[in-house]
Amino acid sequence: MIRRQSIQVVVSAMLVTIAAVLFKVSLLAAQSVPSVVAVLVPGPAHKPVLEGLREGLRQVGFKEEVNIKFLVEKANGKTESGALAAAKLVGAKPDVILAVTTPLAVAVKAETHIIPVVFVSVGAPVEAGLVASFASSGNNLAGISSYAAPLSGKRLELLREITPKSKKILIIVSANETVGQASARDSENAAGKMALQVVRRNLARVDDVEKLLLEKWSGLADAVLLLPGALTGRYVERMIKKAGKERLPLIVFEDTLVKMGALASYGSERRLTGLQAAKLVAKLLKGARPADLPIETPDRFILSVNLATAKAIGIKIPRSVLERADRLME
Predict the structure, then answer these.
(1) With 257 labelled, which of 214, 230, 301, 305 sits at a CA distance of 20 to 30 A?
(2) What is the mean pLDDT of residues 62-77?
(3) Whole-angstrom distance, CA of residue 174 vs CA of residue 36
(4) How far apart are CA 205 and CA 311, in angstroms?
(5) Mean per-residue pLDDT for 172-176?
(6) How many percent of the chain have pLDDT more than 70?
(7) Strand partners, 142
(8) CATH for 99
(9) Neighbours of 240 (CB within 10 A)
(10) What total number of domains does the chain contain?
């Protein structure tokens, strides 16, 4: 009887040990399968977003190819390639998708109502039909709005502070995009309060861009405000060169464009946006529901000034701007 009980104890202990081993094996197996984050970007100019995303996820314990893996697709700023890239990424069935810019977020939303999606560099997510409200998307999307429209008035104030003698402002608008329309509305309202005259150019097609680049900007206005949008973004380098050639101050919406030669910007910064997006991605990977996460705005806005451009076009930057600037480029 005692021997039988001893055998039962030994068998029970063995079963417990086997169960523990099997649990550890299953846990290790689960850990060996990395979470997959798919990233859809318009092109290489948005590389800092991906860098920030990777850095942010490392900070919260994710190690690439160990417990996280990235799939990256570039859409080159074209609507048709964006749709194809979105379909390809959704077909890969990742755990989370990061979509950079409004057109690409719209393309991803059209492809999936199930996979959690984080969007960034989206100026007007409600107007674009991406989310129901800033309080809750009401769907599988979460993200960071670049808060573009209200910031357009701030950029116009910056322009007036830098060039107080400017009275006529050329405003360049991506006319078929919600972010362009909203930004133009806020810019014109702000201009009215500042007694500034707006010369608006609506860009709906490539032909409109070419026509604008052939105009003499210095004959139209004293300064230029470039509003965010996919179309304006595709041709921004040529616009920066045009403004410089005509010695006109150009205010833009990202400091990346100041590095390219624009005079100044006030807005989000792509690497910081990626860092902030990483926090949302991490929450979703841990099981949070996108609809439970309110839409965020950037944690920080960056004021950047290109001193070399200012010198080249004969502008002296006021001390009040220099003292506030986060980045001075030469």
Answers:
(1) 214
(2) 88
(3) 34
(4) 34
(5) 93
(6) 88
(7) 118
(8) 3.40.50.2300
(9) 22
(10) 2
- What is the arithmetic mean of pLDDT over 293-315? 95
What amino acid is encoded at 296 in this protein?
A: E
CA pair distance 116, 95, nearest whole angstrom: 7
- Residues 102, 81 share a domain: yes
Instruction: Tell me: do 220 and 317 sit in the same domain.
Output: yes
53: amino acid identity, one letter: L
Residue type (1 letter), 188: E
End-to-end CA distance of the chain: 91
Judgement on whether residues 183 and 130 belong to the same structural domain of the protein: no
User: Is residue 13 a part of any domain in this protein?
Assistant: no
pLDDT band at 165 (very low <50, low <70, confident <90, very high): very high
42-61 mean pLDDT: 92
Q: CA-to-CA distance for 209 and 226, rounded, in angstroms? A: 13
| 12, part of any domain | no
pTM: 0.79
CA distance linking residue 291 with residue 268, whole number of Å: 24
Same-domain status, 56 and 139: yes
Question: Residue range 288-293: average pLDDT?
Answer: 97
